[in-house]
Amino acid sequence: MDTIRKGIYVSRKSHNHDIIFLVDKIIVKNNKKIAILTGIIERVEADSPVEDLEIVDKKNVRETLKLLDKKIKDRLENNLKNSKIKKNLFSRNVNLQRQITGDRTITGRILHLDGDKKYSEKSYYYYKKTGLNAIVKNVPEYKQPKVVYNLLTIYKPDILIITGHDGMIKKNIGYNDIYNYRNSRHFISAVKEARRYDLETNSNTVIFAGACQSYFEALIIAGANFASSPARILIDFLDPLIIAEKVALTEKYKYITIDDIAQDLRDGKRGVDGIGANGKMTQIGIRGRSLKSRLAGILRTVP
C-alpha cells in the first residue's frame, strides 16, 4: 500500500476531498507529520496532518488535469475566433494602411515568474499559442524577491507577472497579518524590488502579483497594478495570464481598468482587482516613427 510522501496526489478527508493536491514535502511539527500541499489546478498552498489525507486515484488526477488543459484550449480557441472576427471586419483598412505606411504592431513584452514548475510550462504554452512575447521562469516564491531585479535588468519587460501558490494559514481571521499568508510576503517583497528597478531605470512596468487567497491590499500598496485576492478566494490558473494578455494587446494610449477584464476572469473582481494601467502595445512605422508622430506630420502638411 502506498504511503503519503512527496510527489503523491492527495485530497483532504476533513474538506470532503474538495481539492486535489500534490504533496510538496513532509515536515514534523509537535511530533506529528504534516504535509505541505499545492493545488494541481488552483494556485493554493495548504498543510494537513498526514492522517487526514487520502491518496487520489491516478485516473481522477488525469481527469482533473484534463479539465485544466480543456480550459486552456477553450480560451485559445475563443481568442482565435475573436481574432478572426476582428480580422474580417478590419483587414481591408489595416492592409491598406500597412501598404502605405509599413506599420507593424509590437505587443508588450512579458516576464512571468511562477513558483510552480508545471504551471510555468502551461503558462509558456499559453503565451506561445497566443503569439505573445513572453519569458517564463520557474522560481520558488521565496526566491522571487532575490532574483526579480536582475531578471528585469536582463529582459526589460513591459509587464511583470509574479505568482505561484499562496493561502491563508487561518481562514476568516488575521486578514491584516502578513504572517497569516503562506507566500504573500514574498510576492510583496518582489513587487517592491520591481518598483525599485522602475525608479532607478525610469521604467513603468505593469505588475500583477499574487495567487490564491493572497494579501491583496498589501500587494497594491507595495506597487502592483493588479493583484489577488480581494475576497481571499482561490483564483483560477488562467487569471494572471489573462491580465498579462490584456495589457500586452492593448494600445499604450488606452487605460485598462479591472472592469475591462473582469468578465474574462473566473470570479471577476472577487478574485482579482487593482488600480489599472495603460496598455503596452505599440505601432511602429517603416522608419521607426510612432503612429502619433506620423499623424502629427501629416496634419502639419494639411492646408
Task: Explain what this protein looks like in three dimensions.
The chain has helices spanning about 60-100, 115-130, 145-155, 185-200, 215-220, 240-250, 290-300; strands spanning about 10, 20-30, 30-40, 45-50, 55, 105, 110-115, 135-140, 160-165, 205-210, 225, 255, 275, 275-280, 280-285. The chain folds into two domains: about 10-55; about 105-285, Rossmann fold (3-Layer(aba) Sandwich), CATH 3.40.50. It has seven helices and 15 strands. With about 300 residues, it is of the alpha/beta class. The termini are far apart. The chain is about 40% helix and about 20% strand.
Total count of helical runs of at least 4 residues: 7
- What is the highest CATH level, the class of the largest domain? Alpha Beta
Low-pLDDT ranges: 87-101
Helix percent reads 25-40%
Shape estimate: globular
Biggest pleated-sheet summary: 6 strands, mixed
Tally of discrete structural domains: 2
Structural class: alpha/beta
Question: Helices and strands in order, then pairings?
Answer:
Layout: E1 9-12, E2 21-29, E3 32-39, E4 45-49, E5 53-55, H1 58-101, E6 104-106, E7 110-114, H2 117-130, E8 134-138, H3 144-155, E9 159-163, H4 184-201, E10 206-209, H5 216-222, E11 226-227, H6 239-248, E12 255-256, E13 273-274, E14 277-278, E15 282-284, H7 291-301
Parallel strand pairs: 7-8, 7-9, 9-10, 10-11
Antiparallel strand pairs: 1-2, 1-5, 2-3, 3-4, 6-15, 11-13, 12-14
Helix pairs in contact: 3-4
